[in-house]
């Protein structure tokens, strides 16, 4: 049985209570009735000897507290007793009565009945309940009565359990509304229609109605937002905090005249109006209406009160959840870029999608950073977690990374410094990230990756691929493992080529291998439209259309545009530093991508070999790096022109090595494989060039 007192536990001393008269006690005992005296203010529940016997309790085993009787009553009947007492107190009734099952000491069950009278003070506040308890096994021995009561109890228990389970899965206020307004929700309440109002300041807003009135009627008298002092049933339920059950239309309209046109139009002939109260706070009210006159039995009222209590608790949790989500979403939105800067030589499109479950906020982010000399920095990252803390970490990390990039550091240095910054924040969160420095004039991309998904490229001809980009540990973890090395990879982006950076929310699905998601994304990019904004929408639609989309997603597209007038200058420039041991390997990879993007066929292997020889000669025999220029010419038939520049004015010499010599054959290879070649002096060095004819493109 529920403890209605809000005061602390009180010691129980039977001697402190006034002794009942001997005649009254004997009469009750002769009829098998025990008495109880429930002091709501002191929090004590006195039982006489017969009452203890009804509950099968020994005097030494009972401490006089209502909560101590909980183990002596079945759980389902305990809920029913709570609902009956609560209804009587809230509705201002003087008495209540209920049947319940007692759990005996030997584990057997027996029926009991209780009836009580509620005593109130001058302010109508209850302070004491007195009554009787008795053994009801004999009067309920008839099988039909038992079956009826059992069916009612099962129905009530099933309804309460089903509603509680459905509400347990509701996260937001809208989720709660969906549970109570669907057909199952109405069936549990036994109603034909439902209206739900929530308090907003000194007013109440109608947030849900299963059968809204016609627009014409709403235009005449719209109470979707009403004052709490209006003479309407939901407002009155909020003001009084008491449930109201009205069984016929005449009584309903006489009490609330403004309901007359609604009752006539919508066929309302009875209604129940219940306050939504959770932890002593009134959130709103729930209205149930019925198409026929309705007799509200005790079981019906108990079901409505129990279900309304579950709805109120879920609404309170959902309101707090919505407030936290709104705060986190606002925080995240302010941390993301407000606008994307215009860049020369390319187009950028970004998209962000919050997850569909949980708090719907996370640490995914994107950024576009203007850099000196016409370059642009592109960032996509994902902070671990899906809460407001992840959004806050994301904002700090984005600002720090943007500052490091604007200082002109290389991609590898930018990520290394960002990793140390995240480690110094003293947080357990890590982050994945990919940073790209793009030179849209030459098409050169310099990339560094920290545990993030690799980029996806679409070449001008429509072919797509996931180029291999070397990477390091996620940001924040590298410093702990003393491995904050993020090697740089160079790629080339042709005109009208597209670079796609995204977080794993676009390719990962529960129960699906990530390779399947990556293949689907590549197919969507290949079949997508040419315009950048339309392509971004296409990719988001394809990604969100697959089942299981629950994670956040950030997407960034970069498209290198053609020159004005529609002419595509097919020319690329690569810089290979002498101190970069990986520069020659990356130069060969970029050259291979350039030729593939041009759909070049024929002597592609010869072109790559000659470029390798010319670059090697510049790196080995001069004191500077090399600059490789690759150009597709078409004035006298399609051909590829290679040009390697260095800072030395000494011209290369053709040698005649012997059979066992290990060097000296570079220019012989150039002469043998190229259609023609030569050397051209420059103001500060020289250039070695060669040309290769190609079949028709």
Textual characterization of the structure:
Strand 3 (95-103) and strand 4 (109-120) form a beta hairpin. It contains 18 helices and 27 strands. The protein is 35% helix and 26% strand. The relative contact order is 0.05. The N and C termini lie far apart (88 Å). The strands form five sheets. A six-stranded antiparallel β-sheet has the order 8-7-6-11-10-9, sandwiched between helices. Strands 13, 14, 15, 16, 19 and 20 form a six-stranded mixed β-sheet that branches. The chain is α+β, with helices and mostly antiparallel strands. The model is unreliable at 2-17 (pLDDT under 50).
Poorly predicted regions: 2-17
What is the average of the pLDDT values?
81
Distance between the termini: 88 Å
SS-derived structural category: alpha+beta
Global shape: elongated
Largest sheet: 6 strands, antiparallel
**Helical content (DSSP H or I, runs of 4+):** 25-40%
Q: Specify the number of helices.
A: 18
Give the strand content. Answer: 25-35%
The radius of gyration computed from the alpha-carbon positions, rounded to a whole number of angstroms, is 40 Å
- The largest beta-sheet arranges its strands as 8-7-6-11-10-9
Q: What is the number of strand segments? A: 27
Topology:
Layout (H helix, E strand, L loop, with lengths): L21 H9 L2 E7 L4 E4 L1 H6 L20 H17 L3 E9 L5 E12 L5 E10 L7 H26 L4 H9 L1 H7 L3 E8 L2 E7 L5 H6 L4 E3 L5 H8 L3 E3 L2 H7 L4 H7 L3 E9 L2 E10 L7 H38 L10 E8 L9 E8 L5 E8 L4 H19 L4 H14 L6 E9 L4 E7 L5 E3 L5 E2 L5 E2 L16 E4 L5 E5 L11 H14 L4 H13 L8 E8 L10 E6 L6 H15 L6 H18 L4 E8 L5 E8 L19 H8 L2 E7 L2 E9 L4
Parallel strand pairs: 16-19
Antiparallel strand pairs: 1-2, 1-5, 3-4, 4-5, 6-7, 6-11, 7-8, 9-10, 10-11, 12-22, 13-14, 14-15, 15-16, 16-20, 17-18, 17-21, 21-22, 23-24, 24-25, 25-27, 26-27
Keywords: Hydrolase
Protein name: SpoIIE family protein phosphatase
